[in-house]
Amino acid sequence: MATTPAPVTLVIGDEELLAERAANAVVAAAREAEPGTEAHDLSGSKVEHGELTRLASPSLFGDRSVVVIRSAQDLTKDVIAEVVAYAARPSEDIWLVLLHPGGVKGKALVDGVKKAGAHVVTVSKMTKPGERLDFIKTEIKRAGRTIAPDAAQALLDAVGSDLRELAAACGQLVFDTPTDKKGIGAADVARYHRGRAEVSGFTVADAAVEGRLADALEQLRWALSTGVAPVLLVSALAGGLRSLAKVGGAPRNVRGGQLAGQLGMPPWKVDRVKRQLNGWGPTGIARAIQAVAVADEQVKGGGADPAYALEHAVQTIVASRTGR
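^ thats the sequence. predicted structure below, dont judge the formating
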């Protein structure tokens, strides 16, 4: 029997992957409970006053829907008041999901919907290596497998700390490792990674975002020829672009260690990304991210040639940087 989601769910925390999964879980549960449920995905800064009320109005056809509001900290004061009032008396026709990264901005929303009885899901940033190791073990367990402690550590060392990249690496490792094995060991990790995911994937990403097309394509082809999984290369490209978006969108008056702390990046990485931002604008970054999203779908079975999909994504990234 399907479990019906709470009328209002507040996902609070700045771990993007886990927040996205929490929102997707509500959408999936709603559609399981009510097949044909429509999903509305909104950005906080673009939600207008009255929009939630309109979406919550009863449908002529009796259809139900899920409204997901991302970056809820960017809602205006009048919209926050509308959302808080709605949370106190939610409609039977929609499920509402609010994603808030935490912090003081939009705190009135968080306090208001909590007081109204919203279901709260907390997704705090993972800052300790032990937490990421537990994440790896959980990802492998979700796929019905087990992984040895030394293998989990080897995977973390090879891929890095980004949860999206770790999740992609876990999925690829499960897919590539024979199911007749009792568990995944360090030798399995070494066979598919050997540290190359971090070196090759991020080398390709750095070259692409810096506009060095020839270098990026050369590194890409070398990585593919030496066995780096296409999904890890896509993940590295996505990670590089997300870093550009984070640093590029950060307040100009916050610098140094304070900025690094707010963004969840080491200071050296913030400095490097600042240098890489030369030639980039919001439109170009958005175009490049869309190209990587297409490539991600293609390398996971949506296309016939992962290598071509990756090369096309790299070419689009470089062209987006220069505005062509």
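The CA atoms of residues 99 and 197 lie 31 Å apart.
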